[in-house]
Amino acid sequence: MIDPEQVRRIALALEGTVDESKPDRLAFVKAGQKSGYAWTWLERVHPKKPRVPRLTVLAVRCPIGRKDILLEAAADLYFDDDHYRGYPAILVRLDVIPEDELVALLKDAWRL
């Protein structure tokens, strides 16, 4: 299982990454960019109530076409929800994704 500190280490190894994390959630932005490339998923547990941060799931920016491929090829690692449907980011289960695959995914997100 990849924990939040491992995610932070991987993200901060990418040049120019700014850590905008809070105690209950991760958030990484490439310097000079307005939107992040990886952040903690906020789950909708109860309708009309605030979303709940889940440190076991990371939202990672990726092109829609690649997102569709990842969802179809590895549903055990990746998923989508109503909030992210049609949005260029994929939800990653940190308890099952291999570290090398997460590194590659974050590098690709950082390049976007």
Brief characterization of the structure:
The protein has 3 helices and 6 strands, in the order H-E-E-E-E-H-E-E-H. The protein has 112 residues and is an alpha+beta fold. It has one domain (4-111): Aspartate Aminotransferase, domain 1 (Alpha-Beta Complex), CATH 3.90.1150.
Summarize the helices and strands and which ones pair or pack.
Blueprint: H1 4-12, E1 17-19, E2 27-30, E3 38-43, E4 52-61, H2 64-73, E5 78-79, E6 89-93, H3 99-111
Antiparallel strand pairs: 1-2, 2-3, 3-4, 4-6, 5-6
Give the strand order of the largest sheet, numbering strands 1, 2, ... along the chain. 1-2-3-4-6-5
Shape: globular
Quickly count the domains: 1
**Per CATH, which architecture?**
Alpha-Beta Complex
Mean of residue pLDDT?
95
